């Protein structure tokens, strides 16, 4: 079974990812987008990028009990690892296809994940770290990517050394060593 067809309603959305987990069906990016878009607290947080929480643990403090269960189920899925590549040449997070709320949660998970990777003794430090946000070609207003705006705001607010790539405006880049030093300070 490669694909699962789901009807999401206001009452069944929060139970949906847990049922899939019970049947060992992995969450797809499409499911992640759909389910997270139905989480009103998370979507309302993203109306003000200057004050939205910057960590999963902080987000959880604002959510109701059902939303906490939902977000925990999503963060335990394989979606983050499917969006990541990690080698000595490049550590990459590709946010293509993610809706704003999904990119938000994945970005926070990714920051937690690379912090853990960088703190390991036998850590592979990629030569370059790249976050692909897209430049807005598929956005409702062409050329204005809400995901890129979110990533940029998160980078600025956290003091990240990552900057928009001059060669590809849909990417944020930095040297791996610089990112490791920033995370481990």
From TrEMBL:
PROSITE patterns: SMR (PS50828). The keyword GTP-binding does not apply. It comes from the Eukaryota. Keywords: Repeat. Coiled coil: none annotated. Residues 93-183 form the Smr domain. InterPro entries: Smr_dom (IPR002625), Smr_dom_sf (IPR036063). This is Smr domain-containing protein.
